[in-house]
Amino acid sequence: MPPRSVPTARQVRLGTELRRMREGAGLSIQEAADRLGINRTHITNLELARFGVSEERVRALAAIYACPDSAYVEALVAMTRERKGGWWEEYRGHIATGGLDLAELEYYATSLRVLEIMHMPGLLQTEEYARAVLGSTVPQWSATDLRRRLSHRMKRRDILDRDDPPPCTFIIHEAALRMRFGTGLVLRAQLDSLLESSERKNVTVRVLTFEAGGFHVPGLSVTYALGAVPQLDTAQLDAAHGPVFLDAQSQLVNHRGVLDRTTEAALSVEESRDFIRDIAQQT
């Protein structure tokens, strides 16, 4: 397989999991290469996602590493079959790589848990609201760049309309419901759209009110994407320099804990709908 110029976050994750599997077996790179009968550089390149890896190679490595988790191995094998890039590839070179990796993460997630503090979740934003959010960034983008990012954000929403849409739970802070991006009419339309989205069978919307009190969140947004097996879960945080992707087990445990605590403190589904309606009427 030819070398990759810029591997995607998912390709990097596959390489990371191969490294974790090797380290779990207590083998060095040289020992793994010797057992497989290849150069150690090849093992390094696979683990750094510089080259693609075949289904047969993953199975061979899993056998050498004596990995006992067949579901985990099969999930890694399935990742090797993702040869063709998704719709987000048409934006490569036009928007930041982090945005492409986020779209890829959402596309392959078996379920999503999202916590938003300052604005509506990207997957639930209306076009006019998204335009206002994207237009508020510093530094501001050109009209062409803004159109590309807006188109990309709107395209991300398509996962909710798939034949097999992933279950999505959105915990939205009251601050995000009241924060005005654009005009009052834009916000009112966004709140109405949010209520409509909350009626989807695969969408759960819960509101975290100011009365719930303070809580620790490492950023303004957390997206927790469940993988085919728990080892392949990913937490994504927003940062000023772009999305941050975390997959160490300790990090995943921490972010699951944050989401669990905020979910417990949030209003019920029906209470959340009533709360959103009240804010919409005030807008």
Automatic annotation (TrEMBL):
Gene3D superfamilies for this protein: lambda repressor-like DNA-binding domains (1.10.260.40)
CDD domains per UniProt: HTH_XRE
GO MF annotations, alphabetized: DNA binding
Annotated Pfam families: DUF5753, HTH_31
HTH cro/C1-type domain location: 18-73
Bilayer-spanning residue ranges: none
SUPFAM superfamilies: lambda repressor-like DNA-binding domains
UniProt protein name: Helix-turn-helix domain-containing protein
Lineage, broadest ranks: Bacteria, Bacillati, Actinomycetota, Actinomycetes, Kitasatosporales
